[in-house]
Structures are given as C-alpha cells and as structure tokens.
C-alpha cells in the first residue's frame, strides 16, 4: 500500500489531481531547491508517497505522512513511471485522489472537507 499526506484544506486547490507544478509559486526557498534537484535528476518533480512493508508498517506510513498533512490517502496501485526515491519513498508524476481506497484523517474537521470532494471514499479516524 502507498500513502500520501496532504492537508484537507488544500483539496480545493489540488483536487482531483495532485501535481507539484500547481504549487511552484507557493514554496519556501528550500522546497524550490529540492524541486530543482528532482527535476534535474528525474526530469520532473514527483509526488511523494510512502510504501509500507514488513519493516515499515502502515502505522509508520500514517505517522510520517501526517507530518505533511491531516489527511492521509491510501492507494493500492500507482501510475507509471514509479520512482524509487528511498527505501520506503516512491514518486509519481501526478496522483489522482479519486483512485484512493480510503483516507485516514487526524482530526474531525477534515472529515467533512474530504467528504465534500470524495463523498464515497471511506474515511478512518487515526
């Protein structure tokens, strides 16, 4: 399974497709430098996801993705090309949130926001 964290409040801007190009002008200098490095290395800036394994559990993924947002979307498959950025980190060109199996949220306020965009998506409180 693959996990991606985002603040629910950003769904109005990023839904349905998460594409790093959309937020280029809204980043700190360090984030811009990281983006340039990734574009130079891979030809594009990937959307980052974490992949669980026996040594990096679902709870590890949810905990770490929650550092980036209050809503953690879960996918069983990702579009190609799929980059291996680190031992547990993967990257894709874009990510369609409509393909999520379910979503973990860390606060109740996020439930109504996620449901507004994805009314049929199962939401779990974590």
Q: Please, could you describe this protein's structure?
A:
- 29% of the residues lie in helices and 26% in strands.
- The mean pLDDT is 89.
- The protein is globular, with a radius of gyration of 14 Å.
- The chain contains four helices and nine strands, in the order βαβαβαβββββαβ.
- Strands 5-6-3-1-4-8-9 form a seven-stranded mixed beta sheet, sandwiched between helices. A two-stranded antiparallel sheet has the order 2-7.
Topology:
Elements: E1 2-6, H1 11-14, E2 17-18, H2 29-42, E3 47-51, H3 58-65, E4 71-75, E5 83-84, E6 89-92, E7 95-96, E8 102-105, H4 108-117, E9 122-125
Parallel strand pairs: 8-9
Antiparallel strand pairs: 1-3, 1-4, 2-7, 3-6, 4-8, 5-6
Features:
126 residues, alpha+beta, seven-stranded mixed sheet, two-stranded antiparallel sheet, 29% helix
Summarize the entry for a quick read.
With 126 residues, the protein is an alpha+beta fold. Helices cover 29% and strands 26% of the residues. It contains 4 helices and 9 strands; from the N terminus they run E-H-E-H-E-H-E-E-E-E-E-H-E.
H/E element string? EHEHEHEEEEEHE
Structural class: alpha+beta
Separation of termini?
Answer: 17 Å
Cα radius of gyration in angstroms: 14 Å
The number of distinct structural domains comes to 1
Taken as a percent bin, the fraction of beta residues is: 25-35%
Helix count equals 4
Mean pLDDT: 89
Largest sheet: 7 strands, mixed
Q: Low-confidence parts, pLDDT < 50 over ≥5 residues?
A: none
The percent of residues in helical segments reads: 25-40%
Total strands = 9
